[in-house]
Amino acid sequence: MKRLSHKAYQEIREWVHRNARPLDLALWRYYFEEGDRETVLSELGYYQNEDGGFGKTVDPDNWNPDSTPYNAQIVIKMLRQIDFIDVQHPIYQGIFRYLENTKHRSDYGWHFTIPSNNNHPHGVWWDYNAETNVYQSIGTTASLSGFILRYGVPQSKLYSMAVEYTKGLIENLKSTSELGDMGVGGYCELLEDLEAAGLMEQFDYEYLRGKVPCLVQDKIRKETDNFMANPLEFVLSPESSYYEANKAEVELALDHLVDQRPEMGVWGIPWEWYNGDIYTKAFAISENWWKSIKALEKLLILKRFRRIAD
User: Are residues 195 and 75 in the same domain?
Assistant: First the structure.
């Protein structure tokens, strides 16, 4: 079993302090240097719009200042990871208001891409496409719906929307294998939230509980050339319900994580925005932001699996 050395950890720490956005540095300090949640919340405020949603490069790959449903998803994930679930806080109330009122949703869920993305530097996957939204929106809608059902107000319009979306997501799973790039991860989050909220009887829970682990295993073992099928995308700790069934793949991925770190630096990212000379300057900035974000994510996983040397 390979472990990241203390020297390597210090090199990563120094790199992050030199290069990270204030938001990501606040998260780093929270996880590794006894920082506080309030600083993270304060930094997130710079990315929140008047409509309650988030834009302004909160996702470094999309420089659209407008709010998007996916941005709401990643902010909720960020807040959950720092154990901040005060849904009465203005930051959450803003998100709920945005999700309830945004025009960027259809009968199948909240949209993955929105038209105004095309007016700003962004990765090619953020090009607006109404056709691919039908399946690329699955992961976002599942993730958001699960959170709303677990923490939202049952009497609210937003909660009712989440109920209908969840029913549709489960039925859709019975008839299609096209789940988009982030669909499997979204179903994982939805299943966990339904269980935590005790809502198993309201939906076809038995089907979902049996199907999701198979989706995770298939993605890990059949999409070996897809970086989004890395087992560490789904198994975030040894306590994960998906760990035992995928233990060999997870442990190998952890070894690779230690081996693949460049000497004196942090891990790179395995994607580019476009093939060709489009937004090259913006992508160079985004790429550097992502390195800090991914360094934080990878170190958290290594820490949970006891893969950082004392």
Answer: yes
